[in-house]
Write a structure and sequence with these properties.
Elements lengths: L7 H10 L17 E8 L2 E8 L23 E9 L3 E3 L2 E3 L2 E8 L5 E6 L15 E7 L2 E2 L8 E8 L2 E8 L2 E8 L2 H29 L4 H14 L3 H13 L3 H17 L6 H13 L3
Helix pairs in contact: 2-3, 2-4, 3-4, 4-5, 5-6
Length: 285
């Protein structure tokens, strides 16, 4: 008869490793290439790079572990990604807002940096050149420090530009990024003003239609028109004046609202304003 001898220590180990997943405590160990993330705001644009950071470990990196003139995922594990909150220019190439992967082809004297539209990939097997958003050349420079781990960082950040840098094992590769912050800010202001004007006009309409304070409604309508001279805002302003008994001024503004509405894509009060123009002419003072 064969006897089986299981010591208490072995029994404990078997209990731990054979336990169902729900009963076992998750094991956390240091990753060989830990996850890293760096974010920079330039003006109003957020730029975020997420990557796994391999170590040098006394190895020759560029021209060794990372061969020259071959496609590289520019990191380890899953694809290194760059996320842009607004459109930018990278080394003079247009890159719209969105999430991208970063690949590269390191060379002894020059690198090709690749921004690819497929951000959900790892290694280079699933890389598809047809999905490249942009490619540009970058010149590798000697770094003053020999970093143990591959690192992305930002330098020389201004309101309309920054420089994304890859620095590892004594090599420094810089990628200039420029942003039309003035145009973005102007567009943001226009959007904000239009939104504010809409809220002012809707507030004036609420007071008008619910027996509210007509003087307050008039001030709100005036402010809406001052912010955005649209057919809708003019119509609300005209309606308030009519309710206050100023038929002549109301008719004049209603005509302006009609003219602007005829040029608009969504003139949804056409019949209402047309009827008011006919009716208000009869009551003009």
């Amino acid at each position: 008869m064969i006897r089986s001898f299981v010591t208490p220590a072995i029994f404990l180990l078997l209990t731990i490793f054979l336990a169902p997943p729900s009963a076992a405590q998750e094991l956390s160990l240091p990753a060989p290439s830990p996850l890293a993330k760096v974010m920079q705001t330039a003006g109003i644009t957020e730029i975020t790079v997420t990557y796994s950071s391999p170590g040098k470990k006394d190895r020759e990196i560029f021209g060794g572990l990372v061969p020259f003139d071959e496609l590289w995922r520019t990191g380890a594990n899953a694809a290194t990604t760059i996320e842009l909150s607004h459109d930018v220019m990278m080394a003079g190439k247009a890159v719209p807002a969105g999430l991208y992967s970063i690949f590269s082809i390191p060379g002894k004297d020059s690198w090709t940096v690749i921004i690819n539209k497929n951000a959900d990939q790892s290694g280079t097997r699933s890389y598809d050149e047809a999905l490249d958003q942009a490619r540009f050349m970058a010149k590798p420079m000697a770094s003053p420090t020999v970093r143990e781990r591959m690192t992305f960082l930002f330098e020389n950040t201004k309101s309309d530009s920054t420089t994304l840098v890859l620095d590892w094992a004594g090599t420094h590769v810089a990628l200039p990024i420029t942003i039309d912050t003035s145009a973005l800010a102007a567009a943001g202001i226009d959007t904000y003003v239009d939104s504010a004007a809409g809220r002012l006009a809707r507030s004036a309409r609420y007071l008008l239609e619910n027996d509210g304070d007509l003087d307050q409604a008039g001030m709100l309508a005036d402010a809406a028109v001052a912010a955005n001279l649209s057919w809708f805002n003019l119509w609300i302003q005209a309606s308030v004046l009519y309710a206050q008994g100023d038929n002549k001024s109301a008719l004049k503004l209603a005509k302006q609202a009609w003219e602007l509405g005829e040029q608009a894509e969504n003139f949804f009060y056409r019949e209402r304003i047309e009827a008011a123009l006919t009716d208000w002419k009869k009551k003009k003072k």
